[in-house]
């Protein structure tokens, strides 16, 4: 645990000193929270109940997008940064195991993503309470809360797994970032479904998405862990 | 301290290291010399349990390669070809991080000790990326030593350093030797290897030769004494009738005499030359530089290929 903890702290220290990572982690939540609050204030004045639901659903979906997008910036730089600084070999020359290295890198990306997402959600709730008296109870239902708090970790994990796989093959952070962007697809698909169905989110949909995501995470993490072998990292990562 | 028996590493069709046999005792500074692409880095990576050999066996600090890899990584320190520091982290944070990974009981205290030892304490809070090349190299060496490893692998420790920084690194290596650490030194700096290493190995995919620089010189070129004369002495080499003289080459007021044991034979040689009328200015040992010997041996190796 000490080695994972050391790696986690190192990753976070480095991220806090990396403007590109900070920008990636901070700017998008600010934009999405701002636009969510704006949409809630607009939605509160809409007479059409279906239109209102679609608007509110779309707003809440942002909090499923954030946990998929935020880890991209951290995970990409966490791996490509090691390559750029030629730190992989000294790191691998320590007693750190392959699994500890993978876990340290993955958790270092997932935790900030969840914290930022849930803090953003809290700010959004507080702002809507102050501005429009809160989100209508028929919109912010238990399934939505289950989605935001239950699916977020899976979305973040999936995103990190995809990013690690892609970053292991890329030597340029921008290229890795672009290719890793498709990791947000699992968050986008429900957005399209919920928006077009013009209906309330129910637990069946959340459970189905959770189940599919869990399988996808297992597959992606299986391959990502396979890539995280000391010998592969040293001889194949360029 | 390090043993290798038939250690081999292949990458697909290409053999990077072929049947390497080594035995390096505790406290020895062992120079591993060879051209670029000879397989030196692959050897270090195998011996530091970073990559697995394709064949053969090895032990490092009594731990078996393959079966006790994590234990090997705990007791070796590795200085890679590039310093490999986290540029955004401070000098002390770099060391503390690696100290924690290595299980150093008080990593901050160990980091402080080494930063002071290398004269980097005043710069401890500066990002590693802002340090000079020499300072970064010292910091990387400090990182390799932080957990007091029994075996230290140093890959080109003075490459790119200014003479002053290179000197301080060489002094440090000598200090490590006196602390009974085993040092495996990969270098292209042959003068440095000559000065620091107890033994050297010339390596090009396979071991070309191994021994102390002196023993290798003697084995290949014999021992010779150079006698510098004040005046020409024509025909003196033919008159030199001592039984232990194995050969004489003469040049411009200079004789190069091949001997078996210069320590006992030189006084007799000098006496005889004086008797023959030679006016001797200087007597010195004929010494082939390690560079000449290296090029000579590698040329032979290229010919063998």
Supply database-style keywords.
heterodimer, A: 238 residues, mainly alpha, 10 helices, elongated, B: 305 residues, alpha/beta, Rossmann fold, 2 domains, six-stranded mixed beta sheet, four-stranded antiparallel beta sheet, 38% helix, 28% strand
Overview of this structure, please?
The complex is a heterodimer of chains A (238) and B (305). Chain A is mainly alpha-helical and 238 residues long. Chain A has one domain. Helices cover 82% and strands 0% of the residues of chain A. Chain A has helices spanning 2-16, 19-43, 49-84, 88-92, 98-132, 142-167, 173-180, 185-197, 203-227, 230-236. Chain A starts with a helix and ends with a helix. The model of chain A has no long low-confidence stretch (mean pLDDT 81). Chain B is α/β, with parallel strands linked by helices. Chain B has two domains: 2-211, Rossmann fold, CATH 3.40.50.300; 219-286, 2-Layer Sandwich (Alpha-Beta Plaits). In chain B, 38% of the residues lie in helices and 28% in strands. Chain B has helices spanning 40-47, 69-75, 91-101, 107-117, 133-145, 163-178, 190-196, 213-221, 236-239, 262-275, 290-304; strands spanning 2-11, 14-24, 29-33, 55-60, 63-64, 76-79, 151-155, 182-186, 199-204, 206-211, 223-229, 247-251, 254-259, 280-286. In chain B, the strands form three sheets. A six-stranded mixed β-sheet of chain B has the order 6-7-8-3-9-10, with helices on both faces. Chain B has a four-stranded antiparallel β-sheet with strand order 2-1-4-5, covered by helices on one side. In chain B, strand 7 (151-155), helix 6 (163-178) and strand 8 (182-186) form a beta-alpha-beta unit. In chain B, helix 3 (91-101) crosses helix 4. The longest helix of chain B has 16 residues, at 163-178. Chain B is elongated, with a radius of gyration of 24 Å. In chain B, 41% of the residues are buried. Classes of the chains: A mainly alpha (238), B alpha/beta (305).
């Amino acid at each position: 645990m000490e080695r994972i903890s050391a790696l986690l702290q190192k990753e976070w220290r480095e991220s806090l000193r990396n403007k590109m990572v900070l920008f990636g982690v901070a700017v998008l939540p600010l934009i999405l929270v701002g636009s969510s609050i704006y949409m809630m204030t607009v939605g509160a004045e809409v007479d059409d109940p279906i239109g209102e639901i679609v608007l509110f659903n779309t707003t809440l979906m942002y909090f499923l997008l954030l946990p998929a997008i935020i880890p991209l910036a951290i995970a990409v730089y966490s791996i490509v940064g090691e390559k750029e600084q030629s730190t992989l070999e000294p790191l691998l020359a320590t007693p750190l195991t392959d699994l500890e290295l993978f876990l340290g890198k993955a958790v270092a990306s997932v935790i900030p993503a969840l914290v930022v997402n849930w803090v953003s959600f809290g700010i959004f709730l507080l702002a809507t309470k102050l501005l429009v008296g809160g989100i209508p109870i028929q919109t912010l239902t238990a399934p939505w809360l289950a989605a935001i708090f239950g699916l977020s970790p899976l979305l973040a994990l999936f995103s990190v797994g995809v990013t690690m796989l892609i970053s292991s093959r890329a030597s340029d952070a921008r290229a890795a970032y672009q290719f890793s962007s498709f990791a947000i697809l699992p968050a986008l698909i429900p957005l399209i479904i919920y928006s077009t169905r013009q209906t309330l989110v129910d637990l069946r949909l959340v459970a189905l998405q959770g189940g599919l995501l869990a399988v996808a995470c297992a597959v992606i993490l299986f391959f990502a862990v396979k890539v995280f072998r000391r010998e592969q990292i040293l001889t194949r990562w360029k | 301290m390090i043993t290798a028996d038939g250690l081999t590493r292949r990458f697909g069709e290409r053999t990077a290291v072929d049947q390497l046999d080594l035995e390096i005792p505790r406290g020895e500074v062992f120079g591993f010399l060879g051209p670029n692409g000879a397989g030196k880095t692959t050897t270090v990576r195998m011996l530091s349990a970073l990559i697995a050999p394709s064949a053969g066996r090895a032990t490092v600090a009594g731990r078996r390669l393959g079966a006790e890899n994590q234990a090997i990584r705990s007791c070796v320190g590795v200085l890679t070809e590039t310093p490999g520091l986290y540029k955004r982290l401070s000098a002390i944070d770099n060391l503390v991080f690696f100290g924690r990974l290595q299980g150093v009981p008080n990593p901050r205290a160990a980091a402080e000790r080494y930063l002071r030892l290398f004269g980097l304490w005043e710069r401890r809070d500066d990002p590693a990326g802002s340090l000079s090349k020499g300072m970064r190299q010292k910091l990387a060496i400090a990182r390799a030593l932080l957990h007091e490893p029994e075996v230290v692998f140093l890959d080109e420790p003075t490459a790119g350093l200014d003479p002053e920084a290179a000197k301080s690194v060489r002094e440090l290596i000598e200090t490590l030797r006196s602390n009974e650490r085993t040092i495996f030194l990969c270098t292209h700096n042959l003068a440095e290897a000559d000065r620091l290493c107890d033994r050297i190995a010339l390596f090009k995919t396979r071991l070309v030769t191994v021994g102390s620089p002196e023993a290798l010189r003697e084995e290949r070129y014999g021992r010779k004494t150079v006698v510098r004369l004040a005046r020409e002495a024509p025909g003196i080499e033919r008159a030199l009738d001592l039984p232990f003289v194995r050969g004489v080459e003469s040049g411009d007021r200079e004789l190069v005499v091949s001997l078996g044991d210069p320590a006992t034979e030189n006084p007799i040689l000098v006496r005889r030359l004086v008797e023959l009328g030679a006016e001797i200015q200087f007597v010195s040992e004929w010494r082939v530089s390690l560079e000449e010997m290296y090029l000579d041996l590698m040329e032979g190796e290229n010919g063998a290929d």
